[in-house]
Amino acid sequence: MAAAGALRLLVPRGRLLPPRRGLRLSAPAAIQVTVRDALNQALDEELERDERVFLLGEEVAQYDGAYKISRGLWKKYGDKRIIDTPISEMGFTGIAVGAAMAGLRPVCEFMTFNFSMQAIDQVINSAAKTCYMSAGTIPVPIVFRGPNGASAGVAAQHSQCFAAWYGHCPGLKVVSPWSSEDAKGLLKASIRDDNPVVMLENELLYGVPFEMSEQAQSKDFVVPIGKAKIEREGTHVTLVAHSRPVGHCLEAASILAKEGVECEVINLRTIRPMDIETVEASVAKTNHLVTVEGGWPQFGVGSEICARIMEGPAFNYLDAPAVRVTGADVPMPYAKILEDNCIPQVKDIIFAVKKTLNI
């Protein structure tokens, strides 16, 4: 300590010591970035990178977006790149799909994916099927993005999860981010992809800060579509989730770890194409599987995962039936206490884990 003090005294005020071998200077570290800001960064970087990219949707321009995802972009890129539309999802989605067929790369924002039902003919019949029906001669590079699933206190017509709906359709890619790195990397990858991509964000995550690595702060950072991420290593049970329930799984895993149960948490990131290989490898290690999602139980993402595991080599490693944790099989109630009981909670995940482990 004395030597260190003497060293400080020898350095003139206002001057820095030069780098010395054996001393580590602080490198640019990870920073906290909200999902909202991560999406804004991704849009800004891709608009700057490729002049064919443009954003359209309700209130995306002068108002900076209903959720402020496009904050500042209209002032920077102008009316031709950031386009406010009338409240007509079928109309502006059709315009976006036509623009993609003509060689542009539109990002089409739905104020909520519940409103995409107004434009599902354009998304499925026009965007998803055209490349196939044209024998590959007409790609449709378009991104449909916006908040998906339940928010808070917005009742039945604003609370569906559309992961299973759009994941059902060949011709589409479907991504569902959880963290800020997911959001930025998947949006950039989606914009660069030559296929139509449905990006299902979560309104309740927009204001949540996540640690973003130095790598993710780069303009070249992308998250590969179709690749899941192991968020936590474990040995006793595999938890598979996407979007906001990933956080619930990690919280449940922390609680269960205090009881000696080590959960492996997989963040799917992509619904279609699904990275079932990562899930299979995890099940082969843990011998147990619990899927978690905010959507309805029938024909859901968890159902697909369970079917794929049962039909594949990982089935032979299961020591107990797979268990699904889902939203309740009812339209979303408005009352908060009923809403809480319709959405998977941490306690529901813990109960499912103990059930499959028979503890």
What structural keywords apply?
359 residues, alpha/beta, Rossmann fold, 14 strands, disordered N terminus
Descriptive report:
There is one protein chain. With 359 residues, this protein is an alpha/beta fold. It has two domains: 33-217, 3-Layer(aba) Sandwich (Rossmann fold); 229-357, Rossmann fold (3-Layer(aba) Sandwich). Helices cover 36% and strands 16% of the residues. The protein has twelve helices and 14 strands. It has helices at 2-10, 35-49, 73-77, 89-101, 120-133, 163-167, 180-192, 245-257, 276-286, 301-311, 336-342, 346-357, and strands at 31-34, 53-57, 82-84, 105-109, 143-147, 173-175, 197-201, 209-212, 229-232, 237-241, 263-267, 270-272, 289-292, 323-325. Strands 3-2-4-5-7-6-12 form a seven-stranded mixed sheet, sandwiched between helices. Strand 10, helix 8 (245-257) and strand 11 (263-267) form a beta-alpha-beta unit. The longest helix is centred in the N-terminal third of the chain and has 15 residues, at 35-49. It is globular and about 60 Å long.
